[in-house]
Predict the structure.
Amino acid sequence: DLHLSIRRQRQMCIRDRNMYFNDSWVSEDKFHHFTVSLLGTLFLSQTSLAMVDNDPGDASALGSSTMFCIGVGKEFSDAEQTHNHFCWKDLTANLFGAGFGIVLFFKLNGN
């Protein structure tokens, strides 16, 4: 039984490692990270501009930093899950989404 247990652990380790190394830069998951970050940044920035602060620079900083922090939190949560991992590629997609959200926010607000 000990031999089977060691063998299962080795198989799980190999599968987890393959999942980590086979994580593509272009995938549906990265698209979701990008899109949620973009839309969240746009929504939070616009809401902040309308309700809290009348400065587009401050509003965009609040929206984008909040969405990026949510993304970092999600990756730390992923790291704690079995068969999942902390992914820098996901964070990169979040960062690009927040960046495009800022650009779109300024375009929509005439800046």
Observations:
- The radius of gyration is 19 Å.
- The longest helix spans residues 56-80.
- The chain is about 80% helix and 0% strand.
